[in-house]
Amino acid sequence: MAVTIETLEKLERKMTLTLPVDTIKSEVDTRLKRLARTVKMDGFRPGKVPMSVVAQRYGYSVHYEVMNDKVGEAFAQAANEAKLRVAGQPRITEKDGAPEGELTFDAVFEVFPEVKIGDLNTAEVERVASEVDAAAIDRTVEILRKQRRSFAQRAQVDAAQDGDRVTVDFEGKVDGEPFQGGKAEDFQFLVGDGQMLKEFEDAVRGMKSGESKTFPLAFPADYHGKDVAGKQADFLVTIKKIEAAHLPEVNEQLVKSLGIADGTVEALRADIKKNLEREVKFRLLARNKQAVMDALVAKAELDLPKSSVAAEVDRMIESARADLKQRGIKDADKAPIPAELFQEQAQRRVRLGLVVSELVRGNALQAKPEQIKAHVEELAASYEKPAEVVRWYYGDNRRLAEVEAIVIENNVTEFVLAKAKITDKQLAFDELMGQQQ
Question: Which of 40, 120, 226, 255 is 20 to 30 Å from the Cα of 213, by its Cα?
Fold first, then answer.
């Protein structure tokens, strides 16, 4: 086998392969003979079909199959001997005018780039920290109380106020015409809970059981109901029932109902703090990891393989279609999704993947089995039966591979943070969790 390799542009290469015709013919004959032993054809007993008939029926497809296999093997062997790291699949075409007894092919492909990572000692990274304070625990206790609240009907003379559960009939019209979703009977919602638009809640607040009211309501331009988005409607609402919420006391009964065996408020608060600290740890790690990855990308110089970017775009389009399908969108698998929507994001993902791989390879940052085990156990700790969750992860190589990727990213994050110029920033708990005051 003769091989020549030339550089076309940046990462693009062209390999010319020359194979003896006899190599192809010999393998075709071998496969046809093997096929003849099992093939079934009308008029012949199994295994007794003449070779000439088998060759006539299957010769072209077997020849095509052998050509693909042999050229693929030759390409892989030549790329390995030349120490080329091939990105994507080669485009292979047969050349005309080859010498008698030989077949010549051109394989055009890309190689992975050389990745140059600058001095990480000059990289600047903002590292955030946060703590679980008493106020955060207090708010969580209140959420738990609200989840277990009960309701009792108010007296006829009482007006609806924030926290009450109201049962209403309503009908809305736009320009005097009803619209889909604009009418309901015995509809319940909590006043002040944000379930309804502000104008609706403002109208109901202060009304008494049995009262009716007509009021205008302007739908936002981005309202999910496209027929009424940006339009003004007139609503008639009638209050049928008002129920006051009763929140349980924070006592032994509540604590035990939440699964805290000893029933003390101190044990409840300690359990809440432990769970919140676990969530804070994961969120801080995600924030700091993102800052490290941004710094890495800024410090790296490399060309991107077009084939890798195209493959990443295809993956992202398929993921978007799967998401649409999960939402119940009809014919989601055929949805026209322009590739350019994901081009920039795909380029960043490929760039980051190559940079991280280079850093891992050059600094022995691979995930160790004990690290993977520790991460799985940490993920499982918040579940009722951690051992079952651990078994679930270890029962599927794909799930373990996802954990391994996270551990590698964590190793890279720690490696970069140990070298970079760090600016520490303390975040309030609410800011980290994205809660609104």
Answer: 226
